[in-house]
Each structure stands twice: as C-alpha cells, then as structure tokens.
C-alpha cells in the first residue's frame, strides 16, 4: 500500500488558478492543508518555499517536493491519484492543449478585465471580499490600490479595449473546445478546471455577462465554480468597448 505524502496548497484567496488547483484536489478526494497568504508578503513566502523565480500562486507541496503553477499541480495530482482522471484517454492530448491555452491565453484576462473594470467602478472592489460597495474612504483606498494593479498587470485603456475586442473570439474558442469534447463532459477535465475558473471570474463583470451567459462556456464555469464573490455593475467599461455579437 502506498501512502499519499502530506499536501499543502499555497493560495491567495481570490485567485482563479488557485481555484483550479483546489477544485482538482477536491475532485480527487485528497486531504490537504491550505495556506492563504497575504497579497504583497506572499511573494517572499512563495519564493522561500518554491524557489526565487516562483513568486506567484498557486503552489503545492507534496511532502517536501515543491510543485509550482496550476498546470504542474494538476499533472502531479493526476500521478498521485489517477481517479477520476483529469486527462482521460483518448482525449488526454486535446485536454492538455486546451489547458495550455487556458493558462497561457485566457487566464490573464481574468486579471486584466476585472481590475480594468474596477478602475471605472472602484467602490465595487468591496464586493470581492464578500462585502458590499465601499464607502467613500474605502473608495479612496481602492482608487489608489487599483492604480497599482494597472501598473503591475500592464493594463492601459488601449490594452483593455483590445482585450475586450478579442473576447468574443475567445468565448467562441471555449465553446468549440466543449463541442470537440476536450471539456464540458460529465466529469471535469483539467481544461474545465483551468478555463472554467477564469470564466467564473469574468462573470463578476456585468458588462461581460451578455458575451458568456446562455452559452456552453457559462455552464462549465458555474457548474465547477458555483460560488465566487464579486459584482462590478453594468456600464463600467466606456460605451462601445464591449463587443457583443448580434
Ligand atoms: N499561469 C500561472 C499564473 C499564476 C499567477 O499569476 N497567479 C496570480 C494570482 S491569479 C498571482 O500569483 N499574482 C500575484 C503575483 O503576481 O505576485 C498559474 O496558473 O499558476
């Protein structure tokens, strides 16, 4: 009999790739400890545990073995507990390709679009902590905090408008992956967990919901990630920036 080494997941609470990793741990029925880090000091702690270049979350300690990044974590969990499979045959390669796309292309939109929208509705930042809209003093704090997030994530009005113009094609791609069977089946694949987590975050932005709601992509997001706090009211983005197809 083999015993599973102790599993410790390092997260920042609202992070979508952390949701991906945690959903995989739960799906596999594995016991784990979760360490919720504080934004800011998290970078030093992650570097200490996972190595100097690895300051982002999530990270998973498998015993003493550091596994860094959502895709690497899902691959490692599949080795530890193959059942139920995240990369089922015969579609394993298609799943890996979709997961890579979700990590490399779509995932950043789950940062740039909400932070981008909050610039125009800073009082809504309070809803992401599970509270309501911020009071004026809180909104002052949010305005200054959000300036930092725009800088850190390289957000500009031009980039935001370009991200929004490209979003309908990205959602089409998700629906195509579902139609091809790489995700959207009875049990979640790694692609469901990677892509679904990003879509769930995008659903907090009311301006984006008309692009996603009622489509297979929405079903994946809400099925595997039913709860996620945050609500940025409609009309945040300047008129004409969100392209909703007729
Ligand atoms: N593609 C990586 C991205 C990880 C990532 O950028 N995580 C964000 C949270 S969503 C983070 O750690 N942000 C804080 C930082 O950049 O220091 C993954 O899926 O693990």
Brief digest:
This protein is an alpha+beta fold and 246 residues long.
Helix and strand arrangement:
Layout: E1 7-11, H1 16-27, E2 33-36, H2 42-50, E3 59-62, E4 65-68, H3 70-80, H4 92-106, H5 109-120, H6 136-152, H7 157-180, H8 190-202, H9 209-212, H10 216-224
Parallel strand pairs: 1-2
Antiparallel strand pairs: 1-3, 3-4
Helix pairs in contact: 1-3, 1-8, 4-8, 5-6, 5-7, 5-8, 8-10
The chain binds glutathione.
> Which structural class matches the secondary elements?
alpha+beta
The helix-strand sequence is EHEHEEHHHHHHHH
Rg is 18 Å
Give the strand line-up of the largest sheet: 2-1-3-4
Figure out the total of helices.
10
Reading off the top of the CATH hierarchy, the class of the largest domain is best stated as: Mainly Alpha
Strand content: 5-15%
Number of domains: 2
User: Unreliable segments (pLDDT under 50, ≥5 consecutive)?
Assistant: none
Assembly type of the chains comes to single chain
Inertia-based shape? globular
Looking at CATH, which topology of the largest domain would you report? Glutathione S-transferase Yfyf (Class Pi), Chain A, domain 2
Got a strand count? 4
Mean pLDDT: 97
Heteromolecules bound? glutathione
Helix content: 40-55%
Q: Main β-sheet: number of strands, strand sense, barrel status? A: 4 strands, mixed
How far do the termini sit from each other?
A: 58 Å
How would you describe what is shown here?
It is built from ten helices and four strands. The protein has helices spanning 16-27, 42-50, 70-80, 92-106, 109-120, 136-152, 157-180, 190-202, 209-212, 216-224, and strands at 7-11, 33-36, 59-62, 65-68. A four-stranded mixed sheet has the order 2-1-3-4, sandwiched between helices. Helix 1 packs across helix 8 (190-202), helix 5 (109-120) crosses helix 7 and helix 8 (190-202) packs across helix 10 (216-224). The longest helix is centred in the last third of the chain and has 24 residues, at 157-180. The protein binds glutathione. The site of glutathione has 13 residues, from helix 1.
